[in-house]
Amino acid sequence: xxxxxxxxxxxxxxxELLSMVPRPVCAVLLLFPVTEKYETFKQEEEERLKDxxxxxxxxxxxxxxxxxxxxxxxxxxxxxxNNQAHLDFESDSALKKFLEQTAKMTPEQRATFLEKDxxxxxxxxxxxQEGQTEAPSLDEKVNLHFIAFVNVGGxxxxxxxxxxxxxxxxxxxEDTFLEDAVEVCKIFMARDPQEVRFTIIALSKDSY
Length: 208
Description:
Largest sheet: 6 strands, antiparallel
Radius of gyration: 16 Å
Structural class: alpha+beta
Number of helices: 7
Distance between the termini: 16 Å
Order of helices and strands: EHEHHHHHEEEHE
Strand content: 15-25%
Strand order of the largest sheet: 1-6-2-3-4-5
Number of strands: 6
């Protein structure tokens, strides 16, 4: 990805701190602890949504996570894949090539393809170091997890490779996207009020 778009930490959730984030923002990544409370919620959510069929746009690019500790890679792929119209890629971009090759695949097929793609692993290692957040190595035992929020067709989607499908969080727009995504992040935080290990990263257009 060319440096016109960059990942940067969101330092706080109040309006003043959010106003410091360069705009536009096209994706938000949330790093959060996987706790017992969260796992219980995830199970209940899955059961509920199986019965309640969500309307998910066919334009949403979703990939399952089958590699341990690759949630950062999956989050990055979700953020970039659903914003290809906004982003400029280098001509030899491994990520662009991966997205082109997997465009017509199912989420499961994409996961299998990723398992065999060494170039993305290398890209992930370097991208993960870009944010200030320390990235775990691929086989380190970790209970922190990355998910992505994106705007596709005016709907806010939560994309988590550990879940069976995207989660629809309602309407959003380019102007309100960061605030809308942060509202969902706040729900994650409220679920585990004792926890402090939350990090929010925005993919925004560099204003320089």
